[in-house]
Amino acid sequence: MGTPKFFLDQTQALLTEHLSHILGKTQNSVLGKIVIIGCAHGEPFVIPTPSNRHVLISSKKDIKELSEAPVDQLSLHAVAKEMLQPKYTMHGFEWKDQRGVEGTGFVRALRCLMTSQLPNLLPSLRCTLENEMTAELKQSRAVRGATHLKVFPSTKRVVAKTNSLFFFGDELSQNSDFTNAALQYPQDVFVAGEAVRSVPRFLASFAASLTTRRHQASKIMFEHLAPVIERRLEIRGQEGPDKPVKRLPPKEDDMLIIPQIDCMQYLIDTSPRKTPWSVQRTIGEIMAVWFSSVHQLAMAATFALEDLCLHPESVEALRQELEENTDGAAVLDLDAFPLLDSFLKESSRLSVSDASKYNIKSVQSFYSPINLSICTTKSS
Predict the structure, then answer these.
(1) CB 3.0–4.6 Å: which of 207, 254, 333, 368 could bond 195 by disulfide?
(2) The whole model's pTM is what?
(3) Residue 264: which of 164, 371, 157, 125 has the closest Cα?
């Protein structure tokens, strides 16, 4: 079915109206190259939205140029900040436009420290995952001998429960009030972010409060995390700036003592030492990472399950690869799963939810040798 002419006319009118506000009036800007979507032919074009105006590119040359742009001019971190509106949706927490400007070592915490502990975490992780999947299947609806699941809600619960074990430690992960809030929090942030971006700025706080039921989930998480983080920061301060945090053995009925392994502690360990964060700031950073660990993984897993249903011919080959490389193995060699790796990458590439990771925002005016110019404005 063709696109109605009325829609094309309206789109063209909107592009013409807002063009100068987005890209400025430079002769070398993309102004003369903007065309409507149906006639782009590899040229850049603009799509206005309620919260912003987006410049889209599709040619390999333009993509290569933007991918090599300096990080202080084009920022992926700023895109996430604009999408989620953390000032209104994350308990007053405010992100910077650039990652790492305050010396945070989250990449090291997640990619190095936590990854190095993966062999120790796998047995508990596998057991928790199996128990949660079994519980979801038992609660599902059986129709004509088949089990019917609501994929996304079930996947979110499994991901949140499994992640909470090694993210927050055993004590908090066994607290039902906390885990229910931790499950609800990513959904609240995502929905509230959409609401905030769709209303005038003076209504932002009201929209966020309304969609999150007065920030109920984040307040519950904050109440449970505050005493734990406060105690850990005290211990870290006592150790001195050049000494590692002492891992104390957990005492009975004392959840404030640092457990042997959890992601929270690694995030604390990699936070700045010269200008230590407050308890509130530390919790804000932890909850922001928690949002990413649950929301994006749940979305990716949901699309992967749907792709398996759409491509049943892939199921047998993937099952065979898993059976051949997991039988009795205590530690898995991820390089031994090329089919699974390729399937997940392709599912992620084609899924709508992952389109956000290809966005990039100009935090400074950007000019390139290919005559593509993006000038920042108050609305960008």
Answers:
(1) 207
(2) 0.75
(3) 164
